[in-house]
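INTERNAL AUDIT FORM
Audit reference: QA-55
Scope: verify that the stored structure record matches its stored sequence.
Auditor: D.O.
Record contents follow.
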Amino acid sequence: MIREVALEHQINLFYCACGTTVGLSTDEKISEAEINEIIGIFAEAAGKKAEKVTFLTIAPYSILTCCGRMSLWLSRYSISIIPRRP
């Protein structure tokens, strides 16, 4: 179900062959809207309503105030979510 919803939103996720793990990649420049869209995809697939998240903007907590990319080099998604093993 997640795959279908993600494709409707034109979001490409990684689907592990085990059938229980979904991965995605992003970078530090991901927007609040993009984060909320990804959360919305998982909520929709689960039949739930997603709550909106907002970024922390108070230094030193805002990554955008200290670590924002200064060029377009590797400016697409590159964060990895690794599942916990039991």
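Auditor finding: record pair retrieved intact. Residues 77-81 have pLDDT under 50 and may be disordered.
Action required: none
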